[in-house]
Specification:
Largest sheet: 3 strands, antiparallel
Helix content: 25-40%
Distance between the termini: 31 Å
Strand order of the largest sheet: 5-6-7
Strand content: 25-35%
Order of helices and strands: EEHEEHHEEE
Radius of gyration: 15 Å
Structural class: alpha+beta
Length: 109
């Protein structure tokens, strides 16, 4: 499976050549959303190569986010996971409740 189309707002972006044209705020937001809402994992081997685990759909989305510059472990380490809502095939949705640790403050989403 391969990600062949992506839309930002109502604008289709062509992959993979136009990834660098995304504004930093959009690629950062996408990276955070993808990293927090997956049961897959991204890690580097001893050789420095990126390995991605998860379902075929998760692997494709995570590999796209890695191309965007996502730092999977850095993003996830900033949050404390309170509850994970697994994907529901009937409702076609999933989600996560997290607390963001910012210095001494924390924000729950």
């Amino acid at each position: 499976m391969t990600l062949v189309e992506a839309y930002v707002g109502l604008n289709k972006i062509c992959l993979p050549d136009d990834l660098c044209k995304l504004p930093a705020s959009i690629s950062t937001g996408l990276s955070e959303a993808i990293a927090l809402n997956t049961s897959g994992n991204v890690f580097k081997t001893q050789d420095g190569e990126v390995e991605i685990s998860g379902s075929p759909t998760e692997k494709d989305i995570l590999s796209w986010a890695v191309k965007l510059g996502m730092e999977f472990n850095a993003i996830r380490s900033k949050y404390e996971f309170l509850f994970v809502f697994p994907f529901n095939s009937e409702k076609k949705r999933s989600g996560v409740a997290v607390t963001y640790q910012l210095g001494l403050e924390s924000c729950t989403y």
